[in-house]
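Researcher: Here's the sequence for the chain we discussed earlier.
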Amino acid sequence: MASVFRSEEMCLSQLFLQVEAAYCCVAELGELDLVQFRDLNASVNSFQRKFVNEVRRCESLERILRFLEDEMKNEIPVIQGPEKYLPTPLPREMISLETVLEKLERELQEANHNQQDLKKSYLQLTELKHLLKKTQDFFETETNLADDFFVEDTSGLLELRPSPASMSGKLGFTAGVVDRERMSAFERLLWRVCRGNIYLRFSEMAVPLEDPTTKENVTKNIFIIFYQGEQLRQKIRKICEGFHATIYACPESAAERKDMLAEVNVRLEDLNIVITQTESHRQRLLQEVAAKWQSWAIQVQKMKAVYHTLNLCNIDVTQQCVIAEIWFPVADTARIQKALELGMEQSGSAMAPILTVVQSKTAPPTFNRTNKFTAGFQNIVDAYGVGTYREINPAPYTIITFPFLFAVMFGDCGHGAVMLLAALWMVLNERTLLAQKSSNEIWNTFFHGRYLILVMGVFSMYTGLIYNDCFSKSLNIFGSSWSVRPMFRNGTWTDHLVETSPFLQLDPAVPGVYSGNPYPFGIDPVWNFAANKLTFLNSYKMKMSVILGIVQMVFGVVLSLFNHVYFRNTLSIAVQFIPEMIFILCLFGYLVFMIIFKWCHFDVHASQSAPSILIHFINMFLFNYDDPSNKSLYAHQREVQSFLVVMALVAVPWMLLIKPFILRARHRKTQLQASMLPGDCPERNDGHSSSHAASSGPKAPAGDHGAQEDHDEKFNFGDVFVHQAIHTIEYCLGCISNTASYLRLWALSLAHAQLSEVLWTMVMNIGLRQRGWGGLIGVFIIFAIFAVLTVAILLIMEGLSAFLHALRLHWVEFQNKFYAGAGYKFTPFSFKHILDGTAED
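Model: Thanks. This is the structure I predict for it:
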């Protein structure tokens, strides 16, 4: 349970594995998801490592799997494998897997090639079939021509042979097929090149044809070009080649054309049978692939990951032992040893793996255990910076403070309920939604934060009930404590005046208006139509924002005490934590005291003469107590405030000067001891040697000089003093600016309430004012517009705005009091993360 509030204690160990058992042991560690391997071959080129050939073989298998996946795309869906543990295949199984995948690839490539050739032949025969029909139809329309009027030349083209009396030359024609979109340009070029000495007839093919290469439907036109002379024939053929037109030869007579058409039909039927058989064979291959593709992909990814990890290890000079260095949580040592033993048994090795702890000056990685609920909050913290090793983790506190501060700005019961229902739907259907594996980045962002949205919705409903705000309307659950519609004898108040007056004020000092009993929970609903509603709510929310902000900042300073205690940094406790607490409590803690004291001390009858807290706070710094218009809150206020200001001023040099000089004195003492005992290791003030402390003791955060400068060999007093001065100035000015920054809680809450009210008044109220059947239909239309605008503006835009402001309040105003965030994340070797695609490089 302690690891929730502080990162896990990590251990660096050296792992000795027999070469035969290394693969199985690493595979078991990958299933465990608890071990991070260090790269012991950082200076070695990636192509010169031991297992680079095995990695290449795995990449070749991945290429085949991608080819098979592309073949199955849009034809056969991948059959989901059984949800059970798939073991990592042994090295000897890679050979059989390679044989199976290469055979499938070869057969599929051959089937695709044959199918493409068959479809190409089918396309040509289909074009020839339509060409013969259109040509026959054209010739049949020319009833005055003899059967032997056309003759075929040596090129296979049919020529027109007129009688000698009519003309002495030969008239021939060329028939073919061209793409429809090229027809207009084809016709213009023929006319210009041949100078009008041709006669062109074309007809559109009604049925689109499938291109065997691109597998897209194309539309084509059939054309017939009549010409005279060999020169024109050559020009026409070159133009046809340029436009990728297909030219077909026609028989000499009509009878031959009919015989050829019949032959083409027979060949088409035969091709149809062969194509169908080829496609069925290809489908059987794809079915076989689809049934096992997922398991093959998982096995190949696991093998590749294991060999990549083995490339991070060293091989000893005897080539019999693999040496690795691993980080792992100390609490999981037994599980890791058990996994290594299991890997040894699977490999059949007789040599047990050896795990020895090694000391290192390198800071360990930071590992915070999370589950699906806490992962979202931990990601918010890690986005600012991964925590330094073993420093306190802000995530458990963020689970409460983040959604609460969000809800303070977002507070609306109705909007919170909509957010809660959306998050609840994602939580209840998370298995189905996870199985879909959507690639939409926006959707994945919302889905991974479903539990965060769920908690934010719950807190928004709570603050909405506190504000008594539900879609800008109030809920009168317990009955109002105000009576604003009495009929006085003097006629000052009437029902008509209360209903129509826009200047109605709620004044509890007026007799008979306020009963004196507070509303049981939240704000009285009668404030919803009061003219001084904003005056009341602004004062309430502004003071509440200041109180919440100062309480959270003080809590952050208190958390820094736990870091100092854990790292045994007594110096920082005395000269940093104590003056920080004195400074913030004497000034801003006193401000909270004045707010609460004024609420409790001044009742409704004395509120008109109550002093201004802001003027008191300003005069406190100026030591100005002679202002007669702002009387004191309590007796001896002058003495108390003067003492608090003096203590706050004393805390500033306390933080600034004492720590650097103490560190310099410690360093000089260490140098003196080292000069007196040159053969001994310099001792730290806590009695531990520096080398031992660097390896076994808890490590201080990177920004904490109190635990590392006292034994640092290169001590620079100027750097330490400047660092402490920056910290002091940042803290003192930050207390002021951070307190003002928390006023965003009030500002965004006011903005959200006003936007909600404007949306209700300008949209929904229009539909509710309509009468009759038209008003009934109008309400449905207006409500649809109201719902869309509510979701788009108030839920999404305002929700994201409140989320970002809550994020800033935690990163800047809260975490900077105790959180260094200078560590690096623990990235274990994990098959789960690799298969999910969430593994980090």
